[in-house]
Amino acid sequence: MSYRGRFAPSPTGVLHAGSLVAALASWLDARAHGGVWLLRIEDVDTPRCVPGADHEILRQLAVCGLHADEPPVWQSARAAHYQQALDALAAAGRAYPCACSRKDIEAAQAAAGLLRERHAELPYPGTCRPERGGLAGRPGRAWRLHTGDAARIDWTDRRLGAQQQDVASAVGDVVLRRADGLWAYQLAVVVDDAAQGITHVVRGEDLADNTPRQILLQRALGVPTPAYLHTPLVLAADGCKLSKQNGAAPLDLSDPLAALRAAASVLGLPPLPGSALPDWLASAVAAWPWRASVA
């Protein structure tokens, strides 16, 4: 199998220490296996995107010596492809319109005795499924994937090992197109991974729980499932994932090698030789610990 990997940042801000870890990991994995490394700007959530952040991210990566092998792709230019996928799912009976608001979902779950835990998703109860009456005269707001009533996904992460999740009970019917008309992350990433021929996904551990619903969607669309590796996270002072939302500082690239060394330590790499950027990156590729774990 020819290896094709990618780094797919959202331009809701520039890169910080945590996002450099994900970028370096995906680049190292591709280089360690003689593969192709791509860049995809995941800008479907346009209200959250910061003007100019996409090009600044590309500049930051270049300063760190992380260069893509093909021109970057912007999700905002790919709406027609997402619509085509949604149309195919709807025609196959795997997608349906939904009229429920967040309050509707919370009320339905509360009536069933379920309360949302802090930071947890509230599974969709299937109110608007066609077999339950569909929209019942209400206007459609979003589109959802019909997961079925038993949708247990078993998968193996190259770092975390055996994983499983029942998508139906943990998440419910996954949103494909949001009530505001924007394309949902889950659909966009699955369509784009397939279109770009991605064989291996390397990303932060916080995205591991997205993997089962993406595998379910891959199967519904009849596209291949990549191999997955979820990397350790950089944590903020409060123990939560370092992110733009909790005030992560932009990368200080006055010394790119120092930033890369810090990212490498999070990934478990030992101190590496090389005082020049190309030499250090070559040492990091040779030391990549998941070299032998590619499926």
From TrEMBL:
- The EC designation for this entry is 6.1.1.-
| One GO BP | tRNA modification
Binding positions (L-glutamate): R6, F7, A8, P9, S10, E42, Y185, R203
Domain (Glutamyl/glutaminyl-tRNA synthetase class Ib catalytic): residue spans on this chain: 4-248
Q: Where does Zn(2+) bind?
A: C98, C100, Y124, C128
Q: What does this protein do?
A: Catalyzes the tRNA-independent activation of glutamate in presence of ATP and the subsequent transfer of glutamate onto a tRNA(Asp). Glutamate is transferred on the 2-amino-5-(4,5-dihydroxy-2-cyclopenten-1-yl) moiety of the queuosine in the wobble position of the QUC anticodon.
In the record, the note on similarity to other proteins reads: Belongs to the class-I aminoacyl-tRNA synthetase family. GluQ subfamily.
Its protein name is Glutamyl-Q tRNA(Asp) synthetase
> What organism is this sequence from?
Ideonella aquatica
Q: What is the lineage of its organism?
A: Bacteria, Pseudomonadati, Pseudomonadota, Betaproteobacteria, Burkholderiales
